[in-house]
Design a protein that fits this description.
Strand order of the largest sheet: 6-7-12-13-14-15-16-19
CATH architecture of the largest domain: Alpha-Beta Barrel
Radius of gyration: 27 Å
Strand content: 25-35%
Bound molecules: acetamide, zinc ion
Shape: globular
CATH class of the largest domain: Alpha Beta
Largest sheet: 8 strands, parallel, barrel
Number of strands: 25
Amino acid sequence: MFFLSTILASAVALIPSPKSLQISAGCVMTTPYENVTVLNASQIEEIFKNPSKSGIMLEIGDNCFSGASEWGTKEGYRMEIAEAGMKLFASTKAGAMYGIQTYMQLCASGQLCTGTIVDEPSHRYRGILFDVSRHFRDVAFIKKQLNAMAFLKLNRLHFHLDDSVGWRLELDSHPELVASTSFRKELYYIKPSTFLGVPEDYVPGTVWNEPDCYGGYYSKSQMKEIIAYADSLNITIIPEIEVPGHSGEFHACHPELFCPTSDATSESVCPGREETFKFYQEILSEVIELFPSEYIHIGGDEARKDSWKTCPFCRKRIAEEHLKDEQELQSYTVRRIADFVTSKGKKIIGWDEIMEGGLHKDATVMCWRDIKYGEEAASQGNDVIMAPMEYLYLDKYQNSNHLEPEAMFGYVPFDKVCSFRLPESKNIIGVQANLWSEYIVDDSQYEYMLYPRAFAVAQLGWSSWESAPTPFYEGFRENVKKLSGLFRKSGYTVFDFDREQEPDAIILGSVTKHKAYQATYTYMGLHPEQKPEMLDTRLTDGKERTSLRFDGPGSVTIKLKKRTNICVVCGVFQRKTGRDLMMLPSEVRVWVSQDGKKYSLAGVRRPLADDTKTDWQISYFPVFGEHKGIQYVRMDFTPSASCKSTGLTEIIVE
Ligand code: ACM
Ligand code: ZN
């Protein structure tokens, strides 16, 4: 029965696919809504006011729909479609709204058949993160995306409101935050940013983009408007206030909350100072009052701790609290903030680094690095939201890089999102995709990165396709194309599947044997914005176009999987103009070793030609010569005279 209904679900263009669907044979009804588009909140409200006008008979009430779980009851619905019209049963308005969305999808696809749908979500948390710090988006844009999210039965918008490069929420307790740090000089984010005051005729809630002044913020009343709008679509807005890292805006306004040993590049506050906690409490009190969400996200990711090592306040705190080191100082900080938030009746979410140095018992972990962190937190009994970078970071390329606008390094095509499987655990409450906006400047590009990958996220969160047969997935891709058409008709920009192309695995394709393939390596001289822990396979992944950026002289040492004879070592470098300017190195030296201690020089190479007419260039720096029993290969390179950044994309050993 389940098998049959999933096949039928694939035949009918519904995303996410319903839990069960039975179609009466042979009957396809004429569509009452030929011009269906993605509905906004007021259009949905109109249907609620006068459902029969749309051919809907509505019954909402306690005994109308009972799901497999509490939230299933809250969000689920049953729909009976007959020639006389559609009957919709739900225990809440949210469930009925999802029923209406399903009905709209059926109408839009011209596939309104007589039959029955019984539907409820498999997971209660189905979210998307919007990073409005790197690039601010206006209120109208946010509402438009909320319409789309509701259409896809997504129910959480994680609002990333600060990230060192722009503070986006007006606060009465600290008006200086928007006044001083919601505008910056640069369109692209740069750390530390050159912050500017608010332009005189700025209208809150809009994007200001004038030469040398860029940004925006939400007034409190606008945020209330967004929250209420989202609520009418069963979407909760979850605010994120970053603790203790990514806090460059605070440094710009309140250097007194930072370690005396830190400078303008420091993004982590000083947890040795008591004023820091007072400041967070003031901000969080207001945030907690403003947002009805049961959760407040307190960040916790990628906190730099260098200044804590030498700061007298931090050392004193570590000694007094009997903490082992800076890791424990981080968990002390998170714990204090979490206790404060919890004391106000809210729950905290933190990125999975909050597990380091001891996880707060009431914290919900948002897993973004390796899936293992999420599984570990769930096994400890904490709630977990899965948002792993490898599958659900929508800032990464969805297509072969050279066909796409510049994006975050990494490749997460539609199929990759679909291939994610939520681990089985009652503590894994759902899934979230993250749209970081470092490279995303305008509305259309935001949507382009979101759709259709968000369709797959909706499917992951609402429906399980664990046991679905292959034709289901084939059908799913077809449905995505149909739904993409509906989105375009509704004014959204959507990436076109027909342009999908595998990225070139040029290097592996042209090299007979890549002896360093997937070998591990260490490096020196990495650009400070690169995140070393995530980059550990890119130089040996067999692919071009995923380069590591170095600043000044760089050095990479590869450990081959076993001792072997080698005859070519080739550095593959990338030159790129534009914002992340990278030039080819002026010189490359290759060293080889049998034991990792004693190295001999295998050769030196300088660029043959530098094609400065193109904005993108891959160049090979091969060094030839036979060497026996080698296990270690080291490549040292010197940047060009004109630019200290160098992009290395692969080291091939043959
Ligand atoms: C993250 O991507 N730093 C959570
Ligand atoms: Zn300190």
